[in-house]
Write a structure and sequence with these properties.
By secondary structure, the chain is of the alpha/beta class. It folds into 2 domains: 90 residues, Chorismate mutase (Chorismate Mutase Domain, subunit A); 245 residues, TIM Barrel (Alpha-Beta Barrel), CATH 3.20.20. 47% of the residues lie in helices and 11% in strands. The chain has an 8-stranded parallel beta barrel with strand order 3-4-5-6-7-8-9-10, surrounded by 6 helices. A two-stranded antiparallel ribbon has the order 1-2. Strand 8, helix 9 and strand 9 form a beta-alpha-beta unit. It is elongated, with a radius of gyration of 27 Å. The structure holds phosphoenolpyruvate and manganese (II) ion. The site of phosphoenolpyruvate has 10 residues, from loops.
Length: 359
């Protein structure tokens, strides 16, 4: 073969590649249109009957030199890419995504605008144990100009023999103390049936990591008029987490605070592994405020200051921590709650990094 002939053939290959490229993208545009029609009909993107028809047609029409199996394999790749294209288009459509709303969502709680660019603290005991214990913590929050108090009344514990929380009694204590000190209250609700009851006592409904995919609870919280603080699941991907938030949002409640709280990995030096990069990913992918619970992420009080600083450095809208008058006798999470001395140091170090308080 002469040099000239090779060049001519290569030129024809280039032309064919150009045509293939054009045809493949023309096909992709049709696939997108079909995806829209299917979505309008509520149909799933993948249709195995249709895929079989396409593969059979290749067998009927193939005149070689490629073997039918080879062509079917190539077409399966095209079909797979087409399906991904339809799924991408659906993902982009999430109501919680930046594609749907480019501006940051802000949530009004107790005169504070969560998500407005200022970085805030939510602090309080792991569990409400008594009026006195809760009051002592509230006093510390007031002293530091922190407006939102956390405290568990319904505690989802790994063992059924561990302290399960004071239930409604705990919610009543939280409300009483919060009103005395001018604070807002965040507390976890574990059952859809308790959402209505919770509205009487709490300002923000927390949905815990273990319940991130309790879809009935998410839907019930979505029908509530109270903002929701949604924790990331113990082993949830960011995609699963965003879809959990979508359950709340699509049920009508647009006031959602996301909260990264560590994920389960092979690492045992900390209770969980703080996925710090989840913060900028969630800030980019969604328009919702993002908090970081450093207490449950690390399970170690000696790591609370550095990890909270890291959360602020990567752009979290706030940090959540646990504080207790006497952590060594706390009824839950005693290894990770701060005492008041450490809490003073924690707040002062974070203020040095830009933490917003009202004093
Ligand atoms: C909590 O915040 O009280 C709690 C139990 O956290 P998580 O759901 O993140 O484990
Ligand atoms: Mn705890």
């Amino acid at each position: 073969m002469s040099r000239n002939e090779l060049d001519v053939l290569r030129k024809r290959i280039d032309e064919l590649n150009d045509r293939l490229l054009e045809i493949i993208n023309e096909r992709a545009a049709l696939v997108q249109r079909i995806g829209e029609l299917k979505k309008a009909q509520g149909a799933q993107p993948y249709d195995p009957v249709r895929e079989r028809e396409i593969l059979n047609r290749i067998k009927e029409k193939n005149n070689g030199p490629f073997k039918t199996e080879t062509l079917q394999h190539l077409f399966k790749e095209i079909l797979k890419a087409s399906l991904e294209l339809q799924e991408d288009d659906r993902r982009e459509a999430l109501l919680v995504s930046r594609e749907r709303k480019s501006s940051d969502t802000t949530i009004e709680i107790n005169g504070e605008k969560i998500g407005d660019g200022k970085q805030r603290l939510i602090a309080g005991p792991c569990a409400v144990e008594s009026y006195e214990q809760t009051r002592q913590v509230a006093e510390q929050l007031k002293k530091h100009g922190i407006k939102i108090m956390r405290g568990g009344a319904f505690k989802p514990r790994t063992s059924p023999y561990d302290f399960q929380g004071l239930g409604v009694e705990g919610l009543k204590i939280l409300r009483r103390v919060a009103d005395e000190f001018g604070l807002a209250v965040v507390s976890e609700i574990v059952s859809p049936a308790d959402i209505e009851l919770a509205e009487e006592y709490v300002d923000v409904i927390q949905i815990g990591a273990r319940n991130m995919q309790n879809f009935e609870l998410l839907k019930a919280a979505g029908r509530s008029s109270k903002p929701v603080l949604l924790k990331r699941g113990l082993a949830a991907t960011i995609d699963e987490y965003m879809k959990a938030a979508e359950y709340v949002f699509s049920a009508g409640n647009e006031n959602i605070i996301l909260c990264e709280r560590g994920i389960r990995t092979f690492e045992r030096a900390t209770r969980n592994t703080l996925d710090i990069s989840a913060v900028p990913v969630l800030k980019q992918e969604t328009h919702l405020p993002v908090f970081v619970d450093v207490t449950h992420a690390t399970g170690r009080r000696d790591l609370l200051i550095p990890t909270a600083k890291a959360a602020m450095a990567v752009g979290a809208d706030g940090v959540m921590v646990e504080v207790h008058p006497d952590p060594s006798v706390a009824l839950s999470d005693s290894a990770q709650q701060m005492d008041f001395d450490l809490f003073d140091r924690f707040v002062s170090e974070l203020k040095g990094c830009g933490l917003h308080t009202t004093v």
